[in-house]
């Protein structure tokens, strides 16, 4: 060993360190630099692990939200299709004159149609499908589609006067806009 060699003088330790480069066993700047580099690498690895955990958690949350949305809105396409059936049933009931509603031959038919209408409304409600309120309310472009304007002095311009076709929501999303007639100032 030389005077500059800082290897341990204990023969057992010296034997263990035989073959280890001296820059790893020197107490000088090289060892301190190596230690600092290792500490920096360790911190970088810890940060990478934290970022990976956070990303994994974000992906899991997004997937949970997508699964929940898929469950909640899975019936959207079917619900849109069945709305026309509900509209037709509603129109059929509206066209039955009052005198036929009281006729003994038609009474059971009308009662059956009304029961079917109530059942459709019950099924809609159980799946989060609700009718949009329209008549007498201000036009809401997010829920109503103005089909025509009617001059009126009785209400404010932009107020829904008539519902031409019912609109529906599925939970918090628009399923179908209500088609309405709105008031305008008379000429």
Low-confidence residue ranges? none
Largest sheet: 3 strands, antiparallel
Apparent shape: elongated
Overall pLDDT metric = 87
Query: If strands are numbered along the chain, what order do they take across the biggest sheet?
Result: 1-4-5
Based on CA atoms alone, the radius of gyration comes out at 39 Å
Give the percentage of residues in beta strands.
Answer: 15-25%
**Helix count?**
6
Q: What are the secondary-structure elements, in order, as H or E?
A: HHHHHHEEEEEE
By secondary-structure content and strand pairing, the structural class works out as: alpha+beta
The separation of the N and C termini measures 111 Å
Would you count the extended β strands for me? Answer: 6
Percent in helix: 55-70%
Structural domains: how many? 3
Could you characterize what this model shows?
The protein is elongated and about 120 Å long. The termini are far apart. A hairpin with a 2-residue loop joins strand 4 and strand 5. It has helices at residues 11-16, 22-25, 29-73, 76-95, 98-102, 104-126; strands at residues 129-131, 144-151, 160-165, 168-170, 173-176, 178-184. With 187 residues, the chain is of the alpha+beta class. It has six helices and six strands. The protein has a three-stranded antiparallel sheet with strand order 1-4-5. The protein has a three-stranded mixed sheet with strand order 2-6-3, with no helix packed on it. It folds into three domains: 7-74, no CATH class; 76-127; 128-187, Nucleotide Exchange Factor Grpe, Chain A, domain 2. Keywords: Chaperone, Cytoplasm, Stress response. Its main location: cytoplasm. GO terms for molecular function: adenyl-nucleotide exchange factor activity; protein homodimerization activity; protein-folding chaperone binding; unfolded protein binding.
């Amino acid at each position: 060993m030389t005077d500059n060699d800082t290897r341990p003088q204990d023969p057992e330790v010296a034997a263990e360190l035989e073959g280890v480069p001296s820059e790893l066993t020197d107490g000088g700047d090289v060892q301190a630099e190596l230690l600092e580099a290792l500490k920096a690498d360790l911190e970088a690895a810890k940060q990478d692990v934290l970022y990976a955990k956070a990303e994994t958690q974000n992906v899991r949350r997004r997937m949970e939200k997508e699964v929940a949305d898929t469950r909640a809105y899975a019936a959207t396409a079917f619900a849109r299709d069945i709305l026309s059936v509900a509209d037709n049933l509603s129109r059929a009931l509206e066209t039955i004159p009052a005198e036929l509603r009281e006729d003994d031959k038609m009474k059971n038919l009308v009662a059956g149609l009304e029961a079917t209408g109530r059942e459709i409304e019950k099924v809609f409600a159980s799946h989060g499908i609700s009718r949009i309120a329209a008549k007498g309310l201000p036009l809401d472009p997010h829920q109503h589609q103005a089909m025509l304007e009617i001059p009126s002095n009785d209400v404010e311009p932009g107020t829904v006067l008539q519902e031409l076709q019912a609109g529906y929501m599925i939970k918090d999303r628009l399923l179908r806009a209500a088609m309405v007639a709105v008031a305008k100032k008379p000429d």
